[in-house]
Each structure stands twice: as structure tokens, then as C-alpha cells.
Specification:
Mean pLDDT is 77; it is low at 54-72 and 402-421. Strand 3 (57-60) and strand 4 (65-68) form a beta hairpin. The chain is built from 20 helices and 6 strands. The chain starts with a strand and ends in a 5-residue tail after the last helix. By secondary structure, it is mainly alpha-helical.
Length: 421
């Protein structure tokens, strides 16, 4: 394994030594080259690497994407300079196999690049208080990210698939616990936090590239993977998408209904509105909210409670409501998604409501996904999602009883086999 002194220093020499000496190497999951941000500055080294890439065709994953090395090299160089974690395979010139190049995440914050991605998705709404709840050190997160990318070295043909990402995360969790038991990393809750962040990213962005990893059980949790058929496992992303749509649809429908009521209320005569307590100035403010497709339904419902309609006006208001077009189901899902992104607390409350109501009880994939999203909000991001104080989860997420690899079952070969056309 080739790694420069500067990159080894960034990652921690102890971690680099552990990777070279542990069973990662014996299982064929050691990168041939770890390319760090510092290495891009050295022209001689990069010229040498560029030559290797030009001599061969560069493969990203299974050859699902194949480009001549010279055209892709700048992307790889840019990824290294930005410390964007990545695994690449380059066929060896003599045709005896492939070389695996890994770009590690060398960010100096717990959560690494994943936390940056999540912050961007949530419009930088993650508070410093929540960031401080992420377990582990920057070094711990560099380790688990490096273990993930190294996992791709053994399965390059699955690099761009749900299966490949599942196996890479499974590998990273197993190796992280082993490294924890050997004192290489410091906090055993890091795999749990990584899985939690993946669940929030999937729920807020509908990015299911790593969605299957949300199902990897931690020690002590039920293993639902073993109960899934090959088709179930292959359709994990579809099931999670439908769970998200269920939450978004209810948010959107409630917002549409609440806004419809507010719109009908504001159609009443000015003297009626004054009796209800709405002045001309307040009517203008309420109109903006009533016709906002992305209004928070809880906010609108609170306004309706503030201005109760007298019984003698109710029949007239109902006629106005019947005359107002209510958004169709497709649009309410889209609106609900936008409301959820603008108001993370709404997403959390509705997901929790459906979970407690039992909406996902018949689908173990959806139930586990939503449970882990709700747990992530309550354990790691209570300020971001406005979690009530009595629901905030503190203390260790994982309690292990001397079982370093407990809770990490692999899918069966049948589950991972391609489905027939």
C-alpha cells in the first residue's frame, strides 16, 4: 500500500499501520494507493500517477462508467484536493488484476463530509449544539470513511450499486468495531451515528444511493435483513421512497386543508372578520400565509385556533370551502416535500406520528427506515428538528457485551444475486 507521509500524518499513522497489518489486507480490501489532499501539491508524484492512469483505462466501479484516463484524471485530482472520499479501480498494465485507489475524507470535524452534505440539504439549519452531539473525533470519522472506501476495493464490480454501498458500509462497521477493540479509534457510537445521518439524508433529499445501509442492525437490534427475499432487498430504495411519500403526502394534504380553511375564512365580509378579531392589516398578513403552497400546516392550524369562527358564520364559510379547489394528491406530495425541507420540525413530527400510528407496521423495511430517522432526530439533531425536551435521547447509542462483530449479518448470496429480466 502506497501512502505519503503527509497523508499518513493526516489520517494518523496508527490507523494506516492498522490497515496494513489487520485482516483488511489479508482479505484483499487494502487500497493499493491512498491519495490525500496533500499529495496533489507534489508534481512528481502526480505526474507518476497521471502516467499510470493514461497507460490504462480508468474504471469507476464495474466499468459501469468507463472513460479514458486522461479525461477523468482531473476529476480524480479535484476529488483528492477537496478530500472527497472515493474508491477507484485502475486495471494493471500487465493485465494481472486491478489497482485500487482510495481518496480519504481528511476533514477535521466529527461527521466529516456527510455532516457537510446534511447541513447543505437542511439549508445550514444544523446548530452548533447538534454538531457537538455527533460522537467520535475527526480521526474516528476518517477511519470509518476509509474503511468504507476500502470495502469497495474488494467488490469493484458493485461500486455503483445499492449492493456495493451496503457491503462497503457493512465492512466499515465491522472493521470500525475491530479497530475500537484494539484501541485504534475512540468512540463505538460512530457507526450508529453514520447510519443515522444516512437515514436523515435519505428522508430529506430522497437520495437512496446508500439507503440499504440504513437496514444494517447495530448490536442488540433485530436483524430484518435475514427475513427479506431477493426482490425485497433489491427494492429497498423503492420501499423507502414510498415511506417518504406517505409522510410528504400527509404534510401536503394537511397544509392544503388548513390553507383552504384559512382562505375561506378570509373570503368573509370585513364586518364578519372584525367580529372574529381580524383587522384589515391582519387580513393582509394572513392572506400571504393562506396562499403559500409551502406553509407549515401547524402554523396555519394555530392561526385557525386563534380566530374561531362563530356558529352563525360556519355555514357560509363551508360554502366558500366547497368552492375552493383543493390541490390534487400528486401536488400535495411535492408541496409536502418542500414544506418538510423548509420546516424540518414538521418532517420529524409527521414521520413520528405515522410511526406511532402503525402506518409502517406491515412493511419491516419502511418501519426500520422511519424508526432510524426519528431516532436520529431525537438523538443527534434535537435542535434542528425542534424535538421536545422529554423526547431527546442521551447516553450511549450502542451497548456491546464483548461481541466485536455482533449485529452485522451479511445478505445471503441469493439476496444479492441479480434478478432475472
Amino acid at each position: 500500500m502506497i501512502v505519503s507521509e503527509e497523508t499518513a500524518s493526516q489520517l494518523g499513522q496508527r490507523l494506516v499501520d492498522y490497515i496494513e497489518q489487520s485482516d483488511i489486507e489479508r482479505s484483499g480490501q487494502t487500497p493499493d494507493l491512498i491519495l490525500g489532499a496533500a499529495d496533489v501539491r507534489y508534481s512528481n508524484f502526480m505526474d507518476w500517477l497521471r502516467q499510470q492512469v493514461v497507460l490504462n483505462e480508468l474504471y469507476l466501479g464495474a466499468g459501469i462508467i468507463r472513460r479514458p484516463g486522461i479525461s477523468f484524471f482531473k476529476d480524480m485530482e479535484g476529488a483528492a484536493a477537496a478530500s472527497y472520499p472515493l474508491a477507484l479501480t485502475i486495471p494493471k498494465e500487465n493485465g494481472t488484476g486491478q489497482s485500487c485507489v482510495v481518496i480519504p475524507d481528511t476533514r477535521s470535524l466529527p461527521g466529516g463530509m456527510l455532516l457537510e452534505v446534511l447541513a447543505e440539504l437542511l439549508g445550514d439549519k444544523i446548530s452548533d449544539a447538534d454538531k457537538s452531539r455527533i460522537p467520535g473525533t475527526a480521526e474516528d470519522w476518517r477511519a470509518i470513511t476509509l474503511f468504507h472506501e476500502s470495502g469497495h476495493c474488494a467488490n469493484p464490480e458493485d461500486r455503483l450499486s445499492d449492493k456495493g454501498e451496503y457491503l462497503a458500509d457493512q465492512h466499515s462497521f465491522e472493521k470500525y468495531f475491530q479497530a475500537y477493540d484494539q484501541g485504534v479509534v475512540t468512540d463505538q457510537d460512530v457507526p450508529h451515528a453514520l447510519r443515522a445521518i444516512r437515514s436523515v439524508i435519505a428522508m430529506t433529499s430522497l437520495d437512496f444511493e446508500h439507503s440499504a445501509s440504513v437496514l444494517i442492525p447495530m448490536p442488540g437490534e433485530e436483524n430484518i435483513i435475514s427475513s427479506l427475499s431477493p426482490d425485497d432487498f433489491a427494492d429497498v430504495d423503492v420501499k423507502m421512497w414510498k415511506a417518504c411519500d406517505s409522510v410528504f403526502a400527509e404534510i401536503g394534504q394537511d397544509a392544503a386543508n388548513a390553507c383552504t380553511q384559512l382562505q375561506a375564512l378570509l373570503l368573509m365580509k370585513d364586518d364578519q372578520l372584525q367580529q372574529i378579531g381580524i383587522t384589515a392589516e391582519e387580513k393582509g398578513h394572513l392572506s400571504k400565509i393562506a396562499y403559500d403552497e409551502h406553509a407549515d400546516p401547524a402554523q396555519v392550524e394555530a392561526l385557525l385556533r386563534r380566530y374561531p369562527v362563530p356558529a352563525e358564520f360556519r355555514e357560509e364559510m363551508d360554502r366558500y370551502m366547497d368552492a375552493i379547489h383543493i390541490t390534487d394528491g400528486r401536488i400535495t406530495i411535492t408541496d409536502g416535500r418542500t414544506i418538510a425541507r423548509n420546516h424540518p420540525e414538521v418532517l420529524y413530527e409527521y414521520a413520528r406520528r405515522q410511526l406511532l400510528r402503525g402506518d409502517f407496521d406491515e412493511n419491516p423495511v419502511q418501519k426500520a427506515f422511519v424508526e432510524r430517522f426519528v431516532d436520529a432526530a431525537e438523538r443527534y439533531f434535537p435542535n434542528t428538528f425542534h424535538v421536545p425536551e422529554d423526547r431527546i435521547r442521551n447516553g450511549p447509542a450502542i451497548v456491546r457485551e464483548n461481541t466485536p462483530q455482533a449485529g452485522f449479518p451479511a445478505p445471503s448470496p441469493e439476496q444479492l444475486s441479480p434478478r432475472p429480466n
